[in-house]
């Protein structure tokens, strides 16, 4: 594989090693990365955990207040089926026996679990419009939105895989807005400034900011099926909304009162639509934006019993280095990530500030505690921004494409990463708390060999004990040499200068613009992340990529599992061939699956589904809006006692 990174100003806040180092020497900028088996991603990105923010509230249950509760079951059958809770993201954690011991058994079991999880996911595929609508009602507790049939036809005509779980993020993001009136949501949207508007089936950005222009182009591809609307879009790299947990809980409770499945005769599919023109007596909303680092807001957005919020010393950066404070991270099992949804949740690690600079000193900080209809490309689990496919994924820029990849047999047996020293505003004191800086240090064999001779904030005793404990003793004796042999990790720019206005928009401050290409590259991405994106429920950890925790304590064990240790370093009695074939399986599965569910058209399909829901949400008649043609046709068939009436 020859992977091009011609423009290092990628929007990529994730350490990702592109598994492929050229056999010949390359320039320090490393514009071309080639042939290595492992793509390392200390990414800080992704999946959705329902127990921490308002996902904890069982917000999709049977309709409240007894309103038309029987109708859903009448039209879907009388088997007692009830709407299920969405967003139970795949984690590969089920079935991991406590009796498993050692790296081989643990990772092998996680991979086996992931394969089962993937098969279970495929079994949920809808094969007809009526089946998709039926699944929607069961899972969401509402009728599908108007235009659902047109959306389904567009998706299937583009060979999309229709699995309702793929769209759980939409309902996680939009559900609390049902606590507000449609007029209130529209007023808030108009007051947010930069946006894309849809008018007469055409989408246009109201600014020339390149992200917004790209988003407008993506939305324009599906605008023909959408009502007029205003879509506020975040212009910053970082997410911006963190509503306190108690407020979100209240909103979710109120939103449940607006969940109903009315009789088809009471439902209309006519959406009014709206524009950026102010309505009579529209108030000006003075939105408060704080310039403080987001960590304190994150703690308030976490559940009261979560580790980040309940730990008394959660903000003490040094706690991460204390040997007696090796917190029990419940997303880990036998030293490896068994629940990637939890692993990507800032609320689950009380000392997370010691491992990610964007929480304590981001490049830009502008946070509101209000619930605002602001769309963006990525967010932390505690953010309330509405996710839409990130613009750099869709744009098709060559530097974000997989390029002319090579077969597995032609790749080198090492991990490779090149990138800039970004992720926030680092300085001489705080840099060990930045994920990229820590990862580069951990993959430097020379630095490792000198760790005992200096007071090192990267190779703390806790870090070393956690990272080395699962490794064979022969490998531990030769760690420095082994690290250097199987890692080719380096910065291309340290960005030591004081940031200026001109240098604010640089590589490494939010979503990973290159992650999709890594999946397509036929190499194995290793990903640790705090950021979440639209595609998280489509990717299975240990099936399509290898998950890693944000402390990186599992990195050495993950790498040793796949690459092993040769006789030269570990001796004849400690020689380990590794698990190259399993790595190849993951690389192949990730590449093939990305070509099916992460295409540009899949982003358009997701955006269309999201904006159909947003269009209904902001309509004054939303309580009676829906798509019910399938139910009316079924009733018509029943009345006429015939099956010859075609489906809608």
Describe the model.
The protein has 648 residues and is α/β, with parallel strands linked by helices. It folds into 2 domains: 2-43 and 393-595, no CATH class; 54-290 and 599-640, no CATH class. It is 34% helix and 9% strand. The protein has 24 helices and 15 strands. It has helices at residues 69-76, 102-122, 129-140, 148-157, 168-174, 182-190, 210-220, 245-256, 295-301, 307-310, 340-343, 357-360, 391-395, 435-442, 445-449, 461-468, 473-476, 479-486, 515-520, 555-563, 567-574, 580-597, 600-617, 629-640; strands spanning 2-4, 15-16, 32-34, 36-42, 195-199, 202-205, 229-232, 332-333, 336-337, 375-376, 386-387, 412-420, 487-493, 524-527, 546-547. Strands 2, 4, 12, 13, 14 and 15 form a 6-stranded mixed sheet that branches. A 3-stranded antiparallel sheet has the order 6-5-7. β8 and β9 form a beta hairpin. The protein is globular and about 75 Å long. Mean pLDDT is 81; it is low at 1-36 and 41-101. This is Glycosyl transferase CAP10 domain-containing protein. InterPro entries: CAP10 (IPR006598), O-Glucosyltr/Glycosyltrsf_90 (IPR051091). Residues 336-621 form the Glycosyl transferase CAP10 domain. Pfam families: Glyco_transf_90.
């Amino acid at each position: 594989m020859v992977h091009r990174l011609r423009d290092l100003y990628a929007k990529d806040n994730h350490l990702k090693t592109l598994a492929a180092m050229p056999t010949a020497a390359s320039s320090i900028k490393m514009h071309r990365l080639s042939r290595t088996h492992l793509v390392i991603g200390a990414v800080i990105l992704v999946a959705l955990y329902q127990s921490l923010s308002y996902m904890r509230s069982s917000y999709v249950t049977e309709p409240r207040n007894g309103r038309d509760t029987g109708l859903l079951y009448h039209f879907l059958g009388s088997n007692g089926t009830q709407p299920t809770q969405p967003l139970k993201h795949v984690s590969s954690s089920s079935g991991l026996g406590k009796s498993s011991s050692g790296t081989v058994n643990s990772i092998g079991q996680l991979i086996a679990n992931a394969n089962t999880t993937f098969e279970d996911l495929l079994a949920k595929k809808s094969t007809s419009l009526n089946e998709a609508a039926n699944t929607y009602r069961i899972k969401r507790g509402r009728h599908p939105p108007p235009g659902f049939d047109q959306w389904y036809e567009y998706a299937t005509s583009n060979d999309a895989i229709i699995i309702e779980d793929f769209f759980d993020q939409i309902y996680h993001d939009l559900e609390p807005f049902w606590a507000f009136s449609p007029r209130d949501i529209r007023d808030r949207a108009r007051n947010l400034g930069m946006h894309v508007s849809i008018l007469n089936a055409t989408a246009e950005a109201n600014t020339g900011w390149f992200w917004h222009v790209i988003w407008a182009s993506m939305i324009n591809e599906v605008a023909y099926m959408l009502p007029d609307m205003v879509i506020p879009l975040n212009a910053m790299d970082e997410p911006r909304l963190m509503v306190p947990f108690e407020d979100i809980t209240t909103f979710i409770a109120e939103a449940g009162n607006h969940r109903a499945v009315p009789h088809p005769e009471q439902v209309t599919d006519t959406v009014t639509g709206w524009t950026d023109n102010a309505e009579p007596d529209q108030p000006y909303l003075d939105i408060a934006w704080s310039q403080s680092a987001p960590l304190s807001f994150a703690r308030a957005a976490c559940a009261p019993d979560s580790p980040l919020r309940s730990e008394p010393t959660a903000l003490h950066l040094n706690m991460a280095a204390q040997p007696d404070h090796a917190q029990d991270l419940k997303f880990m099992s036998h030293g490896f990530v068994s629940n990637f949804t939890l692993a990507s949740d800032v609320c689950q690690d009380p000392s997370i500030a010691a491992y990610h600079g964007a929480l304590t000193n981001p490049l830009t900080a502008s946070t509101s505690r209000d619930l605002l209809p602001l769309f963006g490309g990525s967010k932390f689990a505690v953010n309330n921004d509405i996710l839409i496919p990130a613009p750099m994924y869709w744009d098709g820029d060559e530097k974000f494409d997989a390029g002319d990849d090579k077969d597995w047999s032609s790749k080198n047996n090492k991990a490779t990463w090149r990138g800039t020293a970004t992720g926030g505003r680092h300085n001489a004191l705080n840099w060990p708390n930045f994920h990229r800086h820590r990862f580069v240090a951990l993959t430097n064999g020379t630095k490792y060999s000198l760790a005992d001779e200096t007071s090192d904030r990267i190779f703390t005793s806790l870090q070393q004990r956690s990272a080395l404990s699962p490794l064979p003793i022969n490998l531990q004796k030769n760690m420095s040499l082994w690290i250097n042999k199987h890692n080719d990790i380096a910065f291309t720019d340290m960005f030591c200068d004081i940031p200026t206005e001109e240098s604010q928009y640089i590589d490494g401050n939010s979503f990973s613009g290159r992650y999709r290409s890594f999946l397509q590259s036929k190499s194995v991405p290793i990903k640790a992340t705090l950021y979440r994106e639209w595609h998280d429920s489509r990717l299975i950890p240990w099936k399509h990529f290898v998950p890693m925790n944000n402390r990186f304590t599992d990195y050495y064990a993950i790498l040793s599992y796949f690459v092993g240790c040769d006789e030269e370093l570990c001796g004849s009695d400690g020689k380990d061939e590794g698990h190259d074939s399993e790595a190849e399986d993951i690389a192949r599965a990730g590449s093939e699956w990305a070509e099916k569910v992460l295409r540009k058209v899949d982003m358009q399909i997701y955006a269309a589904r999201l904006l159909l829901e947003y269009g209904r949400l902001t309509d004054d008649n939303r309580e009676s809006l829906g798509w019910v043609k399938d139910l009316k046709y079924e009733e018509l068939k029943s009345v006429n006692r015939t099956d010859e009436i075609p489906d809608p």
